[in-house]
Amino acid sequence: MKTIVFVSQDIVLINFLDKVLKDIYKTILFSNIQSALDFIYNSLPDLLVLDVNPNDSFTIAIVNNLKEDPISNQLPVITILSDDAVIPGWESLFVEDYIRRTDLENELLTRLALCITRSERVVEINPLTRLPGNISINRQIQGRLDRNVSFALAYGDLDYFKPFNDKYGFSRGDEVIKITGRLILNIVKNSQPRNSFVGHIGGDDFIYLVETDTMEDVSQELIDAFDRIIPTFYDLSDREKGSITSIDRQGIERTFDIMTISIGITNTKTRSFSHYGEITERASEMKKFAKQFKGSCFKTDKRKN
After folding, report:
1. Range 134-300 has CATH code 3.40.50.2300
2. What is the 3-state secondary structure (H, E, C) of 67-136?
3. What pLDDT, in 10s, does the model give residues 45-88?
4. What is the CATH number of domain 3-122?
5. Domain spans of the chain?
6. Which end of the chain is more exposed for a tag (fewer CB within 10 A), N or C?
């Protein structure tokens, strides 16, 4: 079920939306855009519907900031306009569509479905975590390199995920991937609300970009949160043992530790990069190095060449 965030102070409109949509979408209602921000950043809904006056510069500024943020710019936004409202210049309001109040009863369901479908076609996001995928990741990295912006890149990978997935099933495995994406997103955004980026390469591999000086603190906070939360996904008996019995890639039964996370870090201060492939390869090398150590850890590339 798709999740839609509605922002409105109109009780009549809210009751109408709840009645029409409650069996079709998961609807989350907020009275103003500021109160909705935490949910939007933490959960990345499928659509934001905004009941807004075109002259409300405060709300419009927040929406535009959302659309300029590398993490949330894939969120489609529809605005509801009163019948007599003058349509604003779209260069000043970054939304995908609008609907008049008189058209809500006849067109609302169609407009919502079309907006979500169109965003899924145009924007490349991972359907499980709702995070940007490889095309967006490469574009974000290359854009920073082309602009000569200083940043650090981390490549995170889960250890012992496959045995966990094999033993407990894909459903529980998907929950681990989703919570990992949410942890990374929350920690990165709390540390650096603007100009950071989180992407999901696929499977249990993630990328995040933050300022060089804060990267190790962010990564340590992620490790602490991951190690605290992930054991709760195991059955109590396995959690108490600190391991599970599962099948390895050669089809042999063996014992595996509780999942950990390995993070490889590199940055543009240590050395220069001209192509996204160069810097991601360096981070991948450091991630492989980190996986040689027991437990969750990060390793930072300090090589000059």
Report:
1. no
2. HHCCCCCCCCEEEEECCCCCCCCCCCCCCCEEEEHHHHHHHHHHHHHHHHHHHHHHCCECCCCCCECHHH
3. 989 999 887 778 888 888 888 888 777 777 889 989 888 877 66
4. 3.40.50.2300
5. 3-122, 134-300
6. C
